[in-house]
Amino acid sequence: MDYGFQDYFASHHPRIIPEPFTPEPVETYSKADMDEYVDAFKAIAEEARTNPELVKSAPHKAALATQIDEDGITDIAKFATTWRAYKKFVEK
């Protein structure tokens, strides 16, 4: 986000490492777009080596600076809004 890119797509469950992500560019991106994306990752990698606290406290230009709790995806009390949805999940 700090480099002007849209948020990335989090990797699929189960998560083997903490906070993984899968860069999945679509066919509409040009080579120049992809080069810009790679350059941003190179800059982030360099920042991580030289100033790790800067990267750990990112993003700095986002409207929401805290990570959203994704545990609600698997917590029945948070996502099952009806009794039928709850029963369907529990009976699996």
Could you describe the 3D structure shown?
The protein has four helices and no strands. The chain has 92 residues and is mostly helical. The protein has one domain. The protein is elongated, with a radius of gyration of 18 Å. InterPro entries: PyrdxlP-dep_Trfase_small. GO terms for molecular function: glycine dehydrogenase (decarboxylating) activity. Keywords: Oxidoreductase.
Reading the helices and strands in chain order gives HHHH
| Average of the residue pLDDT scores | 76
Structural class: mainly alpha
Strand residue content: under 5%
The outline comes out as elongated
Largest beta sheet, briefly?
A: none
By DSSP, the count of extended strands is: 0
Number of domains: 1
Number of helices: 4
Which percent bin holds the helix content? 40-55%
CA-to-CA gap between the ends?
A: 38 Å
Query: Which value, in Å, is the CA radius of gyration?
Result: 18 Å
Q: Stretches where pLDDT falls below 50 for ≥5 residues?
A: none
EC number: 1.4.4.2
GO molecular function: glycine dehydrogenase (decarboxylating) activity
InterPro entries: PyrdxlP-dep_Trfase_small
Protein name: Glycine dehydrogenase (Decarboxylating) subunit 2
